[in-house]
Amino acid sequence: MRWSDWIQSAIGSTEREVADVHPGPSAEVRAVLADLTASTNEEFEAFDRRRTVGTAAPILWEPRWALAPMMATAIAVIILWMPAEPAYAPPAMPIGTTVHLDISQSEQLGPSIRMDGLGDVQLLRAGTDGTEVALHDGVARFDVDPTGEYRDLVVHAADVDVTVKGTLFEVHTFGGLVFVRVDRGQVHVRQGDAEFLVDGGSTWSSVQAIASATLRPPSPPDVIVAAEATWISDPVSPMTVAPELPPTPTRVVRMQTPKPAPAAMAKEFNAVLDAQSAGEDPDVLYQRLTNFLVDFPGSPMDAEARALRLEVGAEVRAPDEVIRNIDLFLAMHAAFPHRLQLLELRATLARDRLHDCGLALPTYRRLAEEAAGAQAARAQAWRGLCAADQGRISEANEAFASALALDVEEPLRTNVELRQMELANPSN
Fold first, then answer.
1. SS3 content of the chain, % helix, strand, coil (to 5)
2. CB within 10 Å: which end of the chain, N or C, has fewer?
3. 317, 330 Cβ separation under 8 angstroms
4. Assign residue 129 a region: left if phi > 0, alpha if psi is -120 to 50, beta otherwise?
């Protein structure tokens, strides 16, 4: 804080704060301070008037030799008024360990960085000199306060490094590919020797980066280099040696979300749908959908492609991974038209693949409230069966009654009636 800024703060302070400051200087000392602070006499007079108003008796200013104590007092006041640097709060996430992100909660990485998502993240470093994490798989979303303290962050994903100082962005990695989406601010992406700046509202992918690398202008022809060499000095041998060229500077490219070609995008998506209808191998179909999302980032068909990828992934990926990705997708696409179908898929994976009715039950409750017709009947039936499995007898009987009233189809109807009889006659 400059001395003149301190004077302005003093003028705007409370009466109690003014009373705690040493009495105003004499005209001679005032001139010295005015010269040191570039403040005007009027500023000192305004402060001095506030200091003397309401006092019972005038306080005599000390002689000229008191200048040093007065300056020391002023410095002490300045130090007390200066805001202290915020204390660094270490994250609860242990350094060096890998945690699995859950969409239902977030991790605070220091005072200015919040992280959530669905993936495996390892905290490599966290302190006042910066934070560093590695995203091994899945999706991680980082909200970095652009005005906060200790906001330097580096995210490693495959062979890509993402550096930020205050922004809101996501990093996706799967199968060695990396996708970055920036919602606010700007991030710096490094892949090998190439560097990219990605602005808010734009995306970057490792596939895009490979394509853009082919746009580098070719080096000058060798013949031109040779001509320059002969001009610099006379050749001393029949061969002309080209001069050593300066190293190629690091390439920095500003990335913006490309506008996908509508015809190519629609053609590829229709081809994927046709492949699904023809019974394409799920592994191949899953990879084709992954390629589509990378080749056409942010396309109008993005949500549909991601939902279809979740459906196909239920056959070829680990069920807990698919469930996490469904949760993330629904959190980001709350109004998705086929949201209820994804909820039913989630519950089925939890019940049949993970054999965890406790995980499936909350989803069946949501479906029972929001679905209609046959889907609502199925939800009530499975809600009752899972509730009974968890020992929630009252809820199970209520759900069974609703499922039968909705005329649930076979064989669920038979299962409901049998379980209903077991609950009514526990001794049997």
1. 50, 20, 35
2. C
3. no
4. alpha
Pairwise CA distance, residues 330 & 325, whole Å? 9
What is the spatial distance between Cα 234 and Cα 360, in angstroms, rounded to a whole number? Answer: 83
Where does the pLDDT of residue 253 fall: very low under 50, low under 70, confident under 90, or very high at 90 and above?
A: low
Nearest partner of 137 among 109, 111, 164, 100, judged by Cα: 100
> Nearest-CA neighbor of 353 among 388, 315, 409?
315
The model scores a pTM over 0.70: no
Give the residue among 135, 138, 120 at the shortest CA–CA distance from 328.
Answer: 138
User: What amino acid is encoded at 356 in this protein?
Assistant: D
Give me 399's structure tokens. 């759900």
- Give the confidence band of 391 by pLDDT, cuts at 50, 70, 90: very high
Per-residue model confidence as pLDDT tens digits over 145-168: 988 888 899 999 988 999 987 787
Rounded to an integer, what distance in angstroms lies between the CA atom of residue 388 and that of residue 382?
Answer: 10
Tokens of 243: 């001069």
Per-residue model confidence as pLDDT tens digits over 131-146: 999 998 778 889 999 8
* DSSP 8-state code for residue 278: T
Cα–Cα distances (Å) from 184 to 130, 164, 307, in that order, read 20, 11, 25
pLDDT score, position 69: 53
**Residues in a beta bridge with 123:** 133
Rg (CA), the chain: 34
Q: What's the rounded Cα separation, in Å, for the pair 301 and 313?
A: 18
Distance CA 413, CA 397 (A): 14
CA 408 to each of CA 48, 347, 363, 377, 423: distance values in angstroms, whole numbers, following the listed order = 87, 17, 18, 5, 19
Average pLDDT of the chain is: 74
pLDDT for position 244: 47
Nearest C-alpha neighbor of 188 from the set 136, 255, 116, 142: 255
Separation of CA 293 from chain center: 19
Q: Give the β-pairing of 186-191 and 177-184.
A: unpaired
What is the Cα–Cα distance from 407 to 50, expressed in whole angstroms? Answer: 84
Q: Determine contact, residues 11/21, Cβ cutoff 8 Å.
A: no
Which residues fall within 8 angstroms of residue 290, CB to CB, at 6 or more apart? 174, 175, 177, 309
- Is residue 74 very low, low, confident or very high in pLDDT (cuts 50, 70, 90)? low
Helix, strand or coil for residue 148?
Answer: coil
Helix (H) or strand (E) holding 160: strand 160-164
